[in-house]
Amino acid sequence: MPTASFLAKVKKLGDMPADVALKKIWRKGFDRLYFFFRKYRLLVFPTKAVSIQLEGFHTRSRYLFNPQQQAEYVEMMRTLNCEQDIIEQAELICSHYFNLLGSSLTYLGERLPWNEDFKTNHRWENRFYKEISIIDLSNAADVKVPWELSRFQHFFTLGKAYWLTGNEKYALEFKAQVEDWIIQNPVEMSVNWTCAMDVAIRAVNWIAAYHFFSESPSLHEAFWRRFNQTLFMHGKYIIRNLENGGDHTGNHYLSNLAGLISLGLFFRDGPKGRHAWGKDAEVWLTYGTREIEREMFVQMHEDGSNYEASTSYHRLVTECFLVVTLLCQRNDLLFSDRYMHRLEKMCECIMHTMKPDGRTPLIGDADDGRLLIVSRYGKWIKNDFRHILSVAGELFDRDDFRVIGRDFSEEALWMTGKPPKQTLPKSIPLTSCSYPDGGYFILRNEEAYCLVRCGELSFHGQGTHSHNDQLSFELQVNREDIFIDPGCYVYTADYRMRNYFRGTKSHNTIQINGKEQNDFEELQLFEMREETFSQCVAFQENYFKGMHHGYVNKCGLVHCRELTLRPGEFEIQDRLEPAPSSVQQAADVNYCSTYILPPSMNILERTDKCIIYNENISVELVWDEFSQAQIDECWVSESYGVRVPSKAIRIFSSQFQMKTWIRWHVV
Length: 667
Prior knowledge:
This protein folds into 3 domains: about 65-240, Alpha/alpha barrel (Glycosyltransferase); about 245-430, Glycosyltransferase (Alpha/alpha barrel); about 435-665, Distorted Sandwich (Beta-galactosidase, Chain A, domain 5), CATH 2.70.98.70. The protein is built from 19 helices and 21 strands. The chain has helices spanning about 5-15, 20-45, 70-80, 85-95, 145-150, 155-165, 170-185, 195-215, 220-240, 250-265, 275-300, 310-330, 335-355, 385-395, 400-405, 410-415, 460, 495-500, 550-555; strands at about 95-100, 105, 115, 120-125, 435, 440-445, 450-455, 475, 480-485, 510, 535-540, 545-550, 555-565, 570-580, 590-595, 600-605, 610-615, 615-625, 630-640, 640-655, 655-665.
C-alpha cells in the first residue's frame, strides 16, 4: 500500500508543469543508476576513488592570510596577548581533549573516534554513504558529534601554535590526525561522507591548515599527495551531492558553495586536461561564485535578516559570505555592489539585535555552527557574535563595527590581514530599530533592551528552524538578563526535548487552552506549519504592537500584544480578540503568559507580584487583579547539547485581556 509520503510526492509531481516533472523523474532515475554503479566501483576498486595524480602539487592561490608574513602574524598574536591561550588550546588538542556539542572537556583516546558519538558510544559502521542511516529517534545517538569532530575546526589553532613556537609536534599531530581520518573514512564510505555541508566545512579547514603547515620539514611529499588527493575528492563529492534539492536552500547549500569556492581556488591553477584537476576546479569555482551571488538574494531579506528565522544560523551564513567574499577578493574575484551592500546589511542586523552585554538572543534553532574558528577555540561563547563585526569593520571600513568587535581583533587579523585600529570611540550608541522581514523588533533606552519576535516562520512558512515564539521577547536591564529565550538544546538526539524547547510553553508569550501557536508533528523535527501569520501593527522608538493568528482555528481568537518601554518600567498588555472569520466560539478561555528566567536570577513570590533579583539588580513582575501566578521548573540552553535548570513564572487568566508590569531598581 502506498505510504502517505509517497502519495504526497506523486501529488507534488502532478502539480508541476509536465516538462519540469519529467526532468525531475529523469534526474531521479539517473541518480539511482549513478549511485548503484558508484557503490560497486568503490567496493571493487577502492584505490581508484583517489586516483587523481597530484604529485608535486602546490597551490598558487592566495589565502586569507599570507604565509610569507608569518613573523608579522606571530608578533601581532603576541601584541594581542593571545599567545598563552593558543598554546593551551593546542596542547589540549594534541592530548585529544575536546569539548564538542556539550560534551564538556573529554579525553577521546589515543586514536580519535572519528565515526562515533563518543557521548553515547554509538558507532556508525563504514559502508556506502547512501546506505548509512544517520538518524534513529529510538536512541540518543547524535550524528552531529562525529561530524563536528571531523570538521577539523581545531586545525586553525594547531597552525597558530606551530607558527608561534616552531615546534614540529604540532605539524606531526596535524599529519597524524589527517592520516588516521583518511584510513578510518574511505572516500564516500563512512558517516563523515553523508552530509555535503560537513564535507565542505572540513575542506575549508583543511585548506586553512595547509597554509600553516606547507613548509614543515616533518611533512613529506607522500603525505601531501594523500592529503591533496583526499581534499580533491571533497570537491568531487560536494558537486555531486549539493544540498539544493528541496523547496528551499539554506545554510547547508551555502556551506556547500563556500567549500566549492575554496577548493576551486585551491586547485584552479592545475593542468586542464580531461584527467587533470584544473578543469574540475574551474567548474567548482565558476558554479560556486555564480550561485553564492544568487543565494545572497534568495536567503537574505532586503533588511539584512535571514529567512531561516534563527539568529544562530544568521551568524553562520554571515560567516560563510564573509569568508568567501574575502577569499575571492584576495584572488581578484569581486562580487556585485548590490551583493556587498546586502552583506553589509547582514552585519548591521547582527549589530542591532545584539544585547548591551555583547550577546545575542538565540531565537529559533541553534546548533553552534561555524565555518572557520580562527580564535578562542574551545572557549568561544556560542551566543556572542561580535567576532563577525570585528571582521566586517575591516571589510567595510566601519568604526561602529570595529568598536563593538574590538575584543575580537585576532579574528580580523586572520581574516583580513589588518591589525586593529588604535584610535576608536569608547562606545557606539544604538537605538530602537526593526527588522520586519526577519521578524525582529528591538526596543532600547539607556537602561534596557528588548527584542520582540514577530514574523514569518523560516523558509517562508515551512518552519524548519522556527520555534513557537511569536510575540515572545527577551529583556535585559543594566546588562543583566531578566527574561530570556530558552535556546534549542538538541535536534534528533532527543526528540522529546527538541519539541519541548520549540514549544509555545517554553517562550515568553501567551498559550491559550494548552494549544501550540503553530502545530507540529512529534517526529517531524524540522517542520512546523505556519498558522500564526504574525503582523507588526505599530512600531515606534519604545513601543511595539503586534498580533498573530495561531489560535484562530483552535480557539477562535487572535492574540494581540502591546509592549511599552519606559525609564524603570516595561509594560505588557495582552488582549485576546475574537476572529471575525472563525467558526470557533471564544466563550471558554484559559491561558497563561510565561516568563522564562535565566539561571542566574533568584525569585521571591508574593500575592500580586514576583521579585526577581541578583546582587546587581532587583526587578518586580506585577500582574493585574484578575490574574494569578505560579512558579515552575524549566530548562534553558545557551549552547547545543547543554541544558541547565531554571525557573518560569506563569501568570494565568480567563479574562480576555491581561496587564503586566516589569519594574526595576538597579542596586
